[in-house]
Amino acid sequence: MVPISYYILLSAAIFSIGLFGVLTRRNALMFLISIELMLNAANLNFVAFSTLHGNLTGQVFSLFILALAAAEVAVGIGIILVLQRNFSGIDVTKAVTLRW
Amino acid sequence: MGPFDLIAAIPLLPLTAFLVILFAGHFTPSALPKCGAIPGILALSGSFIISLSLLPLVYSGNFFNNSIYLWATWSISDLHFGFLIDPLSALMLVVVSLIALLVFIHSLGYMNDQNEQGLFRYYAGLSLFSFSMLSFVISDNLLMSFIFFELVGFCSWVLIGFWFREDAPPKAATKAFLVTRFGDYFFLIGVVAVLVIFGTANFAGPNSFPVLAKSAILSGQTLNGLDPQTWVTIIGLLILGGVIGKSAQFPLHTWLPDAMEGPTPVSALIHAATMVAAGVYLVARIYGFYALSPTTLAIIALVGGFTALLAATMATVKHELKQVLAYSTISQYGYIMLALGAGGYVAGIFHLTTHAIFKALLFLGAGAVIIAMHHDGDMWNMGGLREKLPVTYWCFIFGSLALAGIFPFAGFWSKDEVLLETLNYGLGGSPILLIGYAFGLIAVFVTGFYTFRMIHLTFHGSPRSQAAREPHSLRWNIKLPLVVLGSLSLLAGAINMVPLGEILGIDLSYLHHWLDTAPSNLTAHHYHELTESFSGYHSAYFSSIISAILSLAVAVSGMAFAWKLYQSPNPTESGTVYSTRFNTIYRILMHNYYQDDYQLMIASLTRNKLATFANIFDQKYLDGLVNELSSKSLSLSNSIRRIQTGAVTNYALLLSIGLVLILFIFALLGGWL
Amino acid sequence: MLIELVILSAFFSGLFILFSSDENSHKFSFYLSLIPLLGTLIMWINFDGSGNALLNGGKIAFETYVPWLSLGSYSLSWHVGVDGISMPLILLTSILTPLAILSAWTPINERKSQFYGLVLIIEAALFGVFVAFDFFVWFVFWEAVLIPMYFLIAIWGGTRRKYAAIKFFIYTNVASLVMFIGFMALIFGLGDSISSFNLIDISTALHSGQLDGLGFLDASTLKYVAFIALFIGFGVKVPIVPLHTWLPDAHVEAPTPASVILAGVLLKMGTYALLRFNFTLLADVAQKWASIIAIIAAVSVIYGAFLALAQTDLKRIVAYSSISSMGYVLLGLVAYTVYGLGGATFQMISHGLLSGLLFMSVGLIYNATHTRSIEDLSGLADKMPLTSVIFIAGAFGYMGLPLMSGFAAELFIFIGAFGANFPFAKLITAISMFGIVIVAGYLLLTIQRVFFGTFEVKGNPDLALPQIHDLMPLVVILLMIIALGIAPNIFFEMIQDAVEPMVSLLGGISDV
């Protein structure tokens, strides 16, 4: 059996990659993908701990998160389309009409 | 139903007249007879008759001292209105109602015949004044006195400013009210202190504050942490503040000459005979209290004596007839204060009475002259009016002789008694009174001088203006009051002829006996005992004849001096009297010793410097601080909101940093590091 | 029930007027405002309270107590009633409102229905402040007063109305926050000894010494801190120097009827709350700091009077003189004598009437001449005799002319404060009394300049005789001022009865 620390490390690594992506990418699609990465890092955690404790609740949650991610992609893509239409591009740093 | 049941009517009749005149004058002016003079005359005749009818009752030993209206409840003694009728107030009631009545009649000639506008306002004011003054006289406690003391001040304000469309009268009215208010400020503290310290403000009866103060001093207990003697002195001086303001004593005398801007009958009633008398009347009313404090008595005497001299000197150079009379009024009230301060209670009352009569006469006479002169009051434009206005001339002479203190006019007897009492007690162990006596005696000379300067310039010599050559004729309504008062100023001295009594070897001091019929704690005899035991006043029993001869001689020499200087048909002031050597003195006297100037300077400094400074401080610093606070928080939030960039990435970064920080803090607190 | 009827009738009249049409709204609102007046008059006639509502079982008249809901360990309730202190204030409110509405008929020409609606809603909230005995209910009403007043200033005000309205709102609201925190600290400090926000329970708990410490504050420090917070909170409303700077701006910009309500009743909320909270609940602290508070009062009196002396705008003069007069109220409160506390309450009524009268007459002058600067006005008595006479009468009342209510109130305060026990009471009283000289100074100078001399007004004044509805409120108020001056016992007996327990709270009835 693989020790739990490996899963945690992997999940942390994926989360960090996702976070890095969110903070640095300007392309909205890359943004979305990075968020998916972070979600899946959380999923991985859930599954790993669920197995460790022998409790299925964690796995149920991961299913929920999958569904949520799918919905989120749908909404996200919609937002990106609007972004393209209103700001003629999908650079997230350009859409700043809501500032101060 | 005896006269005591009608006491309330004495003040209420003029009050009714006031209401009638006010409302009728506003709503149906045409229905108001003589613009309101008739209701006023009727009301005051009633008051005068009732006042007269009180005299025999009081003389037979009946007094009235009752609360009649509860103003506000109080745990110890209620704040109430009540009447106190004793010899003092009964005498004063007669004087006030008589003079008020005569002034109403005189006003018919002075105001109505001259077709003044808005006369109902004038008569309403006079009626309200009569109401307030009569109520003041019959007050049975200090609070009620204060209330009506203030109200007469208000009426004085209304009446001085009667010609409000001009500039000077409203200014004079404001000044008069403010200066007296300054005095009343101290008086009010005194009233409050009396109420708090003694628990009552009653004048008479076993529970009156003079009696309580006396027993407190005798028992030696402390009152509110202070020695009772100290309290009596402090309160006495505080009340004296109001007296000095109202009776126009130094240094608060400056309002009275300005108040001459009002109509002359008003000057006669308010600023000579009655309201100004309210101050000294108050001292007499609570004389049992003042007698307990030698310090206060000495201050009263010195202020009085000093004022008598100071005001008399200022009267010697004035051009306006009414101004001379105004300063003379201040000076004469100085004498009354001197008498009261020197333990001469009877002498003070005596001079108060005679002065009210002859000064009202002089003012009404001045009013007659001013009408005759087509409303010009400058004596240098007069001259030679003797032949044209014989009745006025003779009445005026009577008043002047009384003022100067010439035998046998009323003023001679009373002024002489004032000086005699001062001398008596001064020689009898209170040498400080001798200073007051000296002031008083010099002032007699000056009084004689200015009185005859006035007579000469007004009536003698040759006419110096067109108006003086063809004076306006006078009607009965002007002359009648003059004749009544003129005969009184000849005869009123008869009520207390002490020197004559000494010569004849009989007791002629009727006024003394009259004041001795008072309730036990209010008699002249009792006051004499109090001043003797508490203030150490002992009479030296100096001969009244010598004193009388002395003051008469001084007065006559003053007159003779004036006679010599102004006897020429066309006298001039600069050439004869004030040569270049005395120019400085003349200027100082003309400027009233710069008393008005420094008081105006204080007033304008307060307003222009202190108040403006406070205003700037308020606007700039206090309000500035508030505005600064709001503008600073605005600019602060302006800079903080810059972190709200609108870019999602920045928000994500801030979120992450926040998350890391929170984790870090948890780690620190949880001891993971 | 009567109290609820009065409040609700005012509130629903307000709502009704607010959403009705402009036409005739002035008449409707006047008639509707007579209903609460009738109600309060009935209350006054049938008043059967005795003692102080908050202290040892004073009997509250027209009391209603309805438990409402429980929140954790505290329950909220609808608890209203009146005692001898609040009864005159309620009467003042219900009398001034119809008169203020009458005085608005001429100057208010836009959005009439909204104006009158808001005035009536303020009236309802003011009733609430004076009758509530549950802190929560009280606080809701306290805050509810601000909102309509904000709109009255911000919509119908003068040229700088927005500045003034926002300043008024923020200033008083921040003060409410400070006060609220202070009071909550007190509540939490009382802990389990109370189970509701009922002021009577709180009063009982505080006076039986059940206050515990809170956090790092021990019980006595908590009391001091709470006292200061409450004092600042209410001091803004009074206003006490140096927390007064919102007042002149608010007054100058507000339309006349709003000024009347602002000076006439709103300021009294502050002194009323001081009386109920600082000087009843925390009486021991107030007593301990009496000298300091009295000095603050004296400063308010003298400083306010000096400020008034420097003004050239008629409304600013009256506004600053309000600061001066309210200083007397504070002086009376801190005296802790029957006459001091009673005089302070009486002065609230008297000043409400007098300042209302002066603001209304300034309004009349402004309606006619379109200016309020005393430099632009001269000799008005010639052409506007009635207005002048009323202003002069009001001004003399303000100066404390005897036989008008101002004199009675000030005299009671002076007697009370002079007889007070705190150190330097006599000296501080004597100094504050100097205010009566300064007030005479600025009012007389104003009268002299504005009303006397030759008639001269810049621009083209409209000198038509004032309408009957313009004059009526002034005459009514003037008559009431004189009536109260001649017979102060109309209210004073009732007030005295209510303040006596406060005095005996601290060691026996004092002589004065």
Polypeptide structure, described:
- The complex is a heterotrimer of chains A (100), B (673) and C (512).
- In chain A, 78% of the residues lie in helices and 0% in strands.
- Chain A has three helices and no strands.
- Chain A is elongated.
- Chain B is mostly helical and 673 residues long.
- Chain B has 29 helices and two strands.
- Chain B has a two-stranded antiparallel sheet.
- In chain B, 58% of the residues are buried.
- Chain C has 512 residues and is mainly α.
- Chain C has helices at residues 2-18, 25-45, 86-104, 112-131, 135-156, 161-190, 199-207, 219-237, 246-253, 256-281, 283-288, 290-309, 314-335, 338-369, 380-383, 385-398, 405-418, 425-433, 435-451, 468-486, 489-505, and strands spanning 61-71, 74-82, 377-378, 456-457.
- In chain C, helix 12 (290-309) packs parallel to helix 19.
- The radius of gyration of chain C is 22 Å and the shape is globular.
- Chains in contact: A-B, B-C.
- At the B-C interface, strand 1, helix 5, helix 6 and helix 28 of B face helix 6, helix 12, helix 17, helix 18 and helix 19 of C.
Structure, briefly:
The complex is a heterotrimer of chains A (100), B (673) and C (512). Chain B is built from 29 helices and 2 strands.
Structural class of chain A: mainly alpha
Proportion of residues in extended strands of chain A: under 5%
Question: Separation of termini of chain C?
Answer: 37 Å
Major sheet of chain A: size, sense and barrel closure?
none
How is the topology of this model organized?
The complex is a heterotrimer of chains A (100), B (673) and C (512).
Chain A: H1 4-24, H2 28-53, H3 57-87
Helix pairs in contact in A: 1-2, 2-3
Chain B: H1 9-27, H2 37-59, E1 64-72, E2 79-85, H3 87-110, H4 119-138, H5 142-160, H6 168-198, H7 209-219, H8 228-246, H9 255-258, H10 264-273, H11 275-285, H12 287-290, H13 294-315, H14 321-341, H15 345-372, H16 385-388, H17 390-404, H18 410-427, H19 432-459, H20 466-469, H21 476-491, H22 498-504, H23 510-516, H24 524-535, H25 544-566, H26 573-577, H27 583-590, H28 595-640, H29 648-670
Antiparallel strand pairs in B: 1-2
Helix pairs in contact in B: 1-2, 1-4, 2-3, 3-4, 3-10, 3-15, 3-21, 4-5, 5-6, 6-8, 8-11, 8-13, 10-15, 11-14, 11-15, 13-14, 13-19, 14-15, 14-18, 14-19, 15-17, 15-18, 15-21, 17-19, 17-21, 18-19, 18-25, 19-25
Chain C: H1 2-18, H2 25-45, E1 61-71, E2 74-82, H3 86-104, H4 112-131, H5 135-156, H6 161-190, H7 199-207, H8 219-237, H9 246-253, H10 256-281, H11 283-288, H12 290-309, H13 314-335, H14 338-369, E3 377-378, H15 380-383, H16 385-398, H17 405-418, H18 425-433, H19 435-451, E4 456-457, H20 468-486, H21 489-505
